[in-house]
Queue: 2 jobs
Job 1
Amino acid sequence: MTVTVRVPAKVNVQLAVGPARPDGFHDLANVFLAVGLYDEVTATPADALRITCTGPDADKVPLDRTNLAARAAELLAARYGRSPDVHLHIAKDIPVAGGMAGGSADGAAALVACDALWGTGASREELLEICAELGSDVPFSLVGGAALGTGRGERLTPLEVGGTFHWVFAAADGGLSTPAVYAEFDRLTPHAGPPEADPVLLAALRTGDPFALAGALSNDLQPAAVSLRPSLKDTLAAGTKAGALAALVSGSGPTTAFLAEGAEAARGIAEALMASGTCRSARTATSPAPGATIVSGSATSF
Ligand code: ATP
């Protein structure tokens, strides 16, 4: 018996960052949009917790208990008084350490897969609670679509999206550490104001108009990511030159995101980015995408 769960990556169409709080976290107004680049996590009964991973970035994924998929299995098992004996296989397609919440996605997927495999029958609220414990971006990976995250980003309000958006994502060589990018943000922005969602951006999502969304995209972490990785400027410029309506760093980077007018324009921008030599790879994807979804297998208890 196995259960496979498919889970999307995300892009932040707005990431407004407030000052550092006493606990070290930052208050955010974080508008998440799930995009159709997916990891798949397959859960199979085993004698002990074990993680395996395949995919282009597999060598960068930790296979020990620091993997968010392993932590998700452990938290769910502890809550239901059982041992987390499961083999979790991650088929990884989301760039690692790319600011697209790939680890968070795997945590949410593992949680849904183990819940189904073990027949724990946890409620949606319980699963969301465990997600918030795993990390700020994990609850959104569970729900998908589009949502405004406040607090550390984990308090979610679903948002309406009125159409399909076409994107190109350019992966960079090497990752950027999210804590390092926040530290650089603190250095560059000693007097950050309170973060607020932009009503113009929320309206653009509702209408599904890519031109309106392009004018409203913003990421307060972008100057920090570019400061740590100046070559991102060249990638952003190459995508803009190729006709992107807007270009921005995805989350804490170093993946860059380009909004296109439609599917054909997106393909052209991806080709131009590949030819520019300013990125490792460039791929098209659409949004919104559904959250963690069981794609095969069935629930059982044993
Ligand atoms: P975010 O957008 O949430 O800031 P990210 O996309 O930049 O995250 P991840 O791909 O989630 O970054 O990886 C960040 C680090 O987390 C990795 O360098 C790795 O050490 C660790 N990690 C833990 N679990 C996983 C996982 N399942 N997949 C990838 N990385 C993981």
Note: Residues 61-62, 66-69, 90, 96-104, 106, 137, 175, 178, 251-252 surround adenosine-5'-triphosphate (CB under 6 Å).
Job 2
Amino acid sequence: MTEINLQATLLDQTIDSPFLNASGVHCQTQEELDDLAQTKNLGALVTKSATLQVREGNPNPRYYDLPAGSINSMGLPNLGYEFYLDYVTKADKKPTILSVAALSAADAITLLKKIQASDYEGPTELNLSCPNIVGEPQLAYDFENTDKVLAEVFSFYTKPLGVKLPPYFDLVHFDKISAVLNKYPLTHVNTINSVGNGLWVDIETEQVVTKAKGGFGGVGGAMVLPTALANVRALRQRLNPSIKIMGTGGVTTGADAFAHILCGAELVSVGTQVIKEGLGAYDRLTAELKEIMAAKGYTSLSDFRGKLKEL
Ligand code: SIN
């Protein structure tokens, strides 16, 4: 049988699998990160989005399983950037992406100055899209401010940098964010973060299901797949080819990963499904993806990446 090769690239590094963990899932503690480093069929690991200071995150309950996905209001619980920066600087088992989140534009600059001054040379991802911080908007919905922050960042930052985006829902917004992002030497965009400020209602108790923000939280899992695919596709059509796309959102099967790659994703992250199923999900997704490729006669991801056909 012809060998199926799932190799992908992260910067100029060849990795054996296109699968990543979605930031936030099983990547907060040393132990969780070490688990990811040992996980077969995971091409690279992404840290929990780190902030300048350690954060407890939002009060519990802050994650709730839904039949077709999940809703969360985690509020960026993390051990602070110093821990994650140290982890990725020393990591030697698997390629890593350092995710950082800023609570303000000033924080973003401070964080990236610290990374610039450090020994870490690997990829960093600036999360511009957390929907769960009380009183703070998702920066990437403000095109002008995103432009200002990136202009300041790239006045001093010379290491590999990507951004994590929220989902967009209007073609004009895809044009606008792409026009901003194309001005900068970004390595990648990661799309999508959860669909912000959804609400779930427990009709038994007549209550919301997460505590912070009156129950409003980020929605993920199967139900966001069409939104995720649209964002991967629309951004791939608009961004400079040098800006790679990491597709995140709604992946529960190998077919979903295939669809992300067909829309143009270089790598594919899995979040909610790993919470539901555990790290073994990557083996199943890999087997399913290979099965689809074999049935179609594809032997590498580049055989179909970005080749979605229109009617
Ligand atoms: C969170 O910690 O609230 C989720 C992370 C994110 O949405 O960026």
Note: The longest helix spans residues 281-296.
